[in-house]
Amino acid sequence: MTVGLGVEWAVEWLTLSARLMAEHREELIALDRAIGDSDHGENMDRGFQAVMEKLAQTPPETPGAALKLAAMALMSKVGGAAGPLYGTAYLRAATALGENADIDAAALAGALTAARDGIVARGKAELGDKTMVDAWSPAVEAADEVLVAGGDAVAVLAAAAEAAEVGAVTTDPLVARKGRASYLGERSAGHRDPGAASSALLLRAAATAAGFPEGSAE
Amino acid sequence: MTVGLGVEWAVEWLTLSARLMAEHREELIALDRAIGDSDHGENMDRGFQAVMEKLAQTPPETPGAALKLAAMALMSKVGGAAGPLYGTAYLRAATALGENADIDAAALAGALTAARDGIVARGKAELGDKTMVDAWSPAVEAADEVLVAGGDAVAVLAAAAEAAEVGAVTTDPLVARKGRASYLGERSAGHRDPGAASSALLLRAAATAAGFPEGSAE
Amino acid sequence: MKKLINDPRSVVDESVEGFGMAHADLVDVHTDPIFVVRKGAPVAGKVALVSGGGSGHEPLHAGFVGHGMLDAAVPGAVFTSPTPDQIIPATAAVDSGAGVIHIVKNYTGDVLNFETAAEMAQAEGISVRSVLVNDDVAVEDSLYTAGRRGVGGTVLVEKIAGAAAERGDSLEAVAGVAEGVVRNVRTMGVALSGCTVPHAGVPSFELADDEIEIGIGIHGEPGRHRIAMEGADAITSRLLDPVLEDLGIKAGEEVLLFVNGMGGTPLSELYIVYRRAAQILAERGAKVERSLVGNYVTSLEMQGCSISVLRLDDELTALWDAPVHTPALRWGM
Amino acid sequence: MKKLINDPRSVVDESVEGFGMAHADLVDVHTDPIFVVRKGAPVAGKVALVSGGGSGHEPLHAGFVGHGMLDAAVPGAVFTSPTPDQIIPATAAVDSGAGVIHIVKNYTGDVLNFETAAEMAQAEGISVRSVLVNDDVAVEDSLYTAGRRGVGGTVLVEKIAGAAAERGDSLEAVAGVAEGVVRNVRTMGVALSGCTVPHAGVPSFELADDEIEIGIGIHGEPGRHRIAMEGADAITSRLLDPVLEDLGIKAGEEVLLFVNGMGGTPLSELYIVYRRAAQILAERGAKVERSLVGNYVTSLEMQGCSISVLRLDDELTALWDAPVHTPALRWGM
Ligand SMILES: Nc1ncnc2c1ncn2[C@@H]1O[C@H](COP(=O)(O)OP(=O)(O)O)[C@@H](O)[C@H]1O
Ligand SMILES: Nc1ncnc2c1ncn2[C@@H]1O[C@H](COP(=O)(O)OP(=O)(O)O)[C@@H](O)[C@H]1O
Ligand SMILES: [Mg+2]
Ligand SMILES: [Mg+2]
Ligand SMILES: [Mg+2]
Ligand SMILES: [Mg+2]
């Protein structure tokens, strides 16, 4: 298949994201309680509910428009560190996608890169700082590899989702150097970063929305 | 024995009282926690420590002087409801004993009556209101009976102690109508009144100090 | 039990000492016996106000010593009324000759100790008038109780009577103002948790995770009954309805609404209660002219709150608004 | 978890609504998006101060809106920084043309959201200067952390910068004053218990009966390390020593000593801590010129406290003393 992904995919991605955030709300709160302030799941759930409301009000016409709408909703409803970071990520991805109705593998990999770069630009975290960057950077790399190897959009997303999940797991032993968990110093080791965990869920949703069998990336 | 009780008895009474208040401090706190404010044992212990300090500073010469000294210390160190009530009781008893060096059964029974009347005058509680009066009134009655039957001072105190202990137990099922426990209404039933319990201990100390075998009044 | 204390027996001494250090511009702390007086007391020609009671209700009473409120506060041991040997010198220290009002919360211990102190102070030539605060509607005022307790409304009595004294009212007049407040204020409280008296070391009562205690006093004593946990709005009705009932508040009347924290409840929750209470009053057509929200009459670290309503008239409102400058209540100066 | 709330999701809305009702003389509450502005804002010609952050720290920030302090406060969800769509209209609502200072506690979330808001407000033609508060000595300010957190010292920054704005200082001057306070204030805190975020329903952390958490922030996050329970005097040293160390307080210097409750600790215990802290400062020859004791920057119902020390000079002392009239801090008017 070389057929690209359209606005239906983007809307489905966001819809699945909202479902996953609701389902994993408590889990993300628990992760944040261990090394943060117990709100990440609540923030993400609230944010994606707002995304759903906006989607219902003004159905977007392109994937880029869908992501821009999500960016605005997340920026204004999530709050905390995650709000501006995800807001920037989705906004940069939307900008990268432009007005295209049909997103191929290359455009998709480019959007993922733009999203990751946005997070890094805002948050100044590096790989290994125990943040959502530890999910996004491996995801971007995996996506690029699949692209170079000639994979299609679904394969790009599947690889990104898988790598993000692995990346989230790799945060477990790390000592945080950015965000709230950094205040804990050594005590932050032994816990998964909540933002990396939510990032992995969001990328899984992207792959599932593109038709990649749900859960198989785990 | 018709020999009366002297200042040694009074000092011994107060000394034993102080020991019993220290030993039963937690028990009295627990009783007060159930239907009051958790301080009765602490208050009585603090008060009798002050009595002991005063006794050491200015050794009294008569039983009356000993009780007056105790009254002043209790009044100024116990606080709460029990402070003025016991203070008045001991002051009235001291006044009843006057300057006599040697207290016979009749004087003793009179002093107990004066003490009880002082408590009633100040606190306006009646028998059955679930207060220390429920220990003191039976004690006074028992003392009078023994006196009429020709008993000596030790027998008077032994009877008072025994009756006070029984009286304290009879407060268990009562609904309080005076003091802090009255706020609980029906919920005050099923608990012993802390002031009745401390009164029984103090009267037991009086009997023990007079030579009545410790604990046999139980 | 974990507390920021050194020794349960030195809690009151050390706390009052720290209080005196932090507010040295407003108060002087006397030790042995312990009491707190307004800086510069006695104020020439002014009726003096003295209050006191067990400790553990901070900022009550010492936090209200200063211009326009109390002249002296007498702290007892935790939840234990102070003794005459403290109350008498405190009374003497602030008497300017114009007489002293004792503001006494209605508890057997406080009543007896203040009564004795008043008698003895009077024997020393000081004119003393006692005003009993008994605003707690949770307790029936009948032959079968020690009468209604003095709770949250006490701070309103102290503020308003303090303003009357500050403007130069006579002993009788200040007592009359204080009694007028007592007649027009009612309170009811709820606990979500007990509290732990330092020397006792265990909580005064234990509540299950889904239980609350309605009609509590301020000494960690259990309340009138225990019910299943409810939402803040429902709890607010449970507290406010009997208060309004008892006061007989009618449409058009003006009131002061006081939501008081018991010590361990976040301010944000007190405002949630305030919101519903103000709504209920508005529904009944009453006008909330003045408000007070915060931890003023507490029970150590207890979670919960009380709601007080004071019926206002122009006189009481003006006295409430009069300048006050104490560690815990300050405005107009 | 028992709280005086109706629904975890409406806690902030209802609490701020109640706050607005109780303080209608001082503030206006805007809803959707939610923010609080000083009555009568914008004040002509005056630089405006805007602060905000997650809720759960009450009275911070809304309690400090009013004359001589903040012009607007922007509450986020509990422990979650507010969003630009709240901060921007709050900023616009209070700008008189003289510019707006954003007082931002140093947390990634607050920094990012205020940063975005400031950019967009500036794009709308408002001059915005941001001042970052980072007074927490428990966190090392290094490449390996997000930098020191903003904690208790925030209230001192808001009061003093507010006074500078009220006297008519320019945007740059007010920012300079605020930054001067930030440079001269340090704080460290301890928790005796965790706290429960309403939507989480379980405590942020659990401490055994004999454990305390040293170096906590104000979001119920665990601290730097956990130690066995100690007496108040020992704990006071643990908090104050690193504060004084870091500030480099020398004999003869004048300071403001601020003992702040985390929400669930009785005032009486804060004074016990104050007592020892003042003693330690006296032993070092420092002069405690001003004091503040109470619950000002809280973490819901957490038990514990923080100690802040601010190095004073005549200018800062005068600004501290300047009149302030807000729901939670008031003097001189
Ligand atoms: N500087 C940063 N760069 C990238 N991600 C960050 C940074 N700071 C925090 N994060 C991410 O944000 C997550 C926390 O989000 P959230 O709990 O919603 O916000 P807050 O920490 O303000 O409560 C962290 O788990 C981490 O993944
Ligand atoms: N009116 C009264 N008359 C007689 N005894 C009383 C009265 N009120 C209280 N008491 C006694 O005082 C005891 C409580 O003493 P204590 O706990 O020291 O004081 P408080 O109730 O002030 O905390 C009660 O158990 C009861 O025996
Ligand atoms: Mg968080
Ligand atoms: Mg008691
Ligand atoms: Mg008591
Ligand atoms: Mg947060």
TrEMBL record, chains C, D:
<dbReference type="Pfam" id="PF02733">
    <property type="entry name" value="Dak1"/>
</dbReference>
<dbReference type="InterPro" id="IPR012736">
    <property type="entry name" value="DhaK_1"/>
</dbReference>
<feature type="domain" description="DhaK">
    <location>
        <begin position="7"/>
        <end position="331"/>
    </location>
</feature>
<keyword id="KW-0418">Kinase</keyword>
<dbReference type="GO" id="GO:0016301">
    <property type="term" value="F:kinase activity"/>
</dbReference>
<dbReference type="InterPro" id="IPR004006">
    <property type="entry name" value="DhaK_dom"/>
</dbReference>
<protein>
    <submittedName>
        <fullName>Dihydroxyacetone kinase subunit DhaK</fullName>
    </submittedName>
</protein>
<keyword id="KW-0808">Transferase</keyword>
<dbReference type="InterPro" id="IPR050861">
    <property type="entry name" value="Dihydroxyacetone_Kinase"/>
</dbReference>
